[in-house]
Amino acid sequence: MTKTQDPPQRARVLVARRLFDDVLEPLRQSFELHCNPDDAIASPAQLRALAADQDGLLITATERIDEALLDACPRLRVVATMTVGFDHIDVDACARRGVVVTHAPDVLTETTADFGMALLLGAARQLGDAQTYLRAGRWTRWSADLFAGSDVHGTTLGIVGMGRIGRAVARRAALGFGMRVLYHNRRPLDAALERESGASWRSLDELLQQSDHVLLALPYSDAARHVIGAPQLARMRRGATLVNIGRGGLVDEPALAAALHSGHLGAAGLDVFEGEPVPNPVLLQAPRLLITPHIASASLPTRRAMARVAVDNLLAVLRGAAPLTPVPAANA
Are 186 and 160 in contact (CB under 8 A)? Predict the structure, then answer.
């Protein structure tokens, strides 16, 4: 009698947060899928336990992939984050273990740029404080200077971080609002991209000094931590607006609050902040600050597309193919 071989074991995939069932269905058909229906955020120890016997992880920005987790996951072959940023993943540690890391560029660019302009407009025109004032029943009469903020049209916008999202914001600002656009990158864009964006390169100091509004759209790194601190805020024009749609660690939050309290800074808009999801109390006490819970990419079509990119990357890698959108090399 010929011995029947056991069927090959299906790869195991952990989906760390609650996502869209129909988008996950291809994973369910191909692999042994473990989901998180109640959407609880796992502690580092819980995540290590959940991921210990998995071949693939589908994560969001709330899950941290570090040496301790990788040591606990000997089977792990691929980590697919549905975010464009990947500062929550130790990419070098993954590379040393042969773990592929993928992300979701491109699909959230336009939606995030829309939100960047919305946050700029809302902050400059003091929409957050105005709504709070109205809902509290404090509005009793019209007056000429009530929540009189800053204009956006025809002013100068400085963008720090001129990747895909920064360039998409620049196009909206120049074409839609007639703004003069300056930008700062480590290296200037090539001439064709500059023309397409309608933007001009400046040093960071020059950009801060020449801009009516400053928008941060760069990824987080140790070198970029508190790229906007007290010295940089002091260089900004009095009454200027600061908007951050990049990462929370880019801004020194106590310094930002102090600049708002003093009146040197006219307004600020933050979609990201250090210590998420709990904001620093100094931010909540600051005037003329519009703050939102990391929702720049939160349109339903875009969030579904982000999840789909992560699913497609998992399918590719766990079937032995090349990843579709691997994270860029460190020296790229």
Answer: no
Q: Pick left, alpha or beta for residue 46 (phi over 0 → left; psi -120 to 50 → alpha; otherwise beta).
A: alpha
Question: What does the alpha-carbon distance between residue 127 and residue 148 come to, in Å, rounded to a whole number?
Answer: 10
Q: Which residues contact 223 (CB under 8 A, 6 or more apart)?
A: none
Which residues in the chain are classed under CATH 3.40.50.720?
12-107+300-318, 109-291
Query: Which residues neighbour 259 within 8 Å (Cβ) at sequence distance 6 or greater?
Result: 230, 233, 234, 236, 265
Residue-wise pLDDT for 68-90, tens only, equals 999 999 999 999 999 999 999 99
Give yes or no: 294 in active site.
Answer: yes
> What is the C-alpha to C-alpha distance for residues 332 and 327, in angstroms, rounded to an integer?
10
Catalytic residue among 184, 237, 288, 294: 294
* Catalytic site includes residue 247: yes
Catalytic one of 247, 288, 303, 308: 247
Instruction: Report d(CA 64, CA 88) in Å as an integer.
Output: 5
Non-local (6+) Cβ contacts of 109 within 8 A are 164, 165, 168
Instruction: Select which of 153, 195, 276, 319 is catalytic.
Output: 276
Q: Measure the CA–CA gap between 308 and 23, rounded to whole angstroms.
A: 6
**CATH code reported for the domain at 12-107+300-318:** 3.40.50.720
- Tell me the CATH architecture of domain 109-291: 3-Layer(aba) Sandwich (3.40)
- 180-184/156-160 β-pairing: parallel
Q: Residue for token digits 């290296």?
A: 187
Is residue 4 predicted with pLDDT exceeding 70? Answer: no
Q: Which band of pLDDT confidence, cut at 50, 70 and 90, is reported for residue 9?
A: confident
pTM above 0.85, yes or no: yes
Active site residue 264: no
First to last CA, the chain: 58
